[in-house]
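Record minuted for everyone:
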Amino acid sequence: MAGPSAKVLDAFALTEPAVLLPGGQGETWRSGDVVLKRAVSETVWRAEVLADLPESDEFRVPRPVRSRSGEWIAFGWEGSSLLDGATDVGRQDDVLRAAEAFHAAVAGFRRPDFLDERSDPWSDGDRIAWGEQPYDGSPAYVELVGLLVDAWRPVELAEQVVHGDLPGNVMFADGLPPAIIDWPVYWRPPSWASAVAVADALCWYGAEPGLAARWAHLPEWGQMLIRALIYRIATDDLAGGAATWTEARRSGYAPVIELALSYAG
């Protein structure tokens, strides 16, 4: 995808050429101390929240940057401050602690309307995991989620805005609090967001089962792990269909499904 044009850079009062940043699905660019990426449905809401969020000793966030016109979006792009640090998927306990503090800080915000308008594999996968949307997936999907669906039961937990993709979106820098970036907004219990992070770490980032045990004090932990796994498996199936299900992909989920079921009672 092409980077921000000269018109976009000028709209944010930037003079340095845009340089593609690593990560960010190849769609995140830097000009000076500002990060630019394509605006999405939640851009304005998220900018308003992050602009006024109090400073914390427990986490940092990228502050949104207004364009010359005073708007958060210019020619389809949004800007935010560049933060020091790098992601480290091996530090999942630190990721989860930072997420707890972040979720406590944003707990009072109302449910944003754009959540009802989003339709993509991640949003739909989330609804499937919570029993809000039916789905007849590929045979591999049905096989993987079968035991999870059997163990699924309703829960009563308070919901709020949460970060739904934590493991690779928390940066660390010496002497600074962890930085939480690239916030995909969901309206779920915070323990679900933690369960997604734990499931991802177990499936793909080499975490040991002890990670799940250390966070098993969170509310409805077994049910949150079940929903986290259905969410990720459904999203994979929606995004890639049957071609997604290589042996490596299936084997990544299998032991974590067994572990989640052990917490579900």
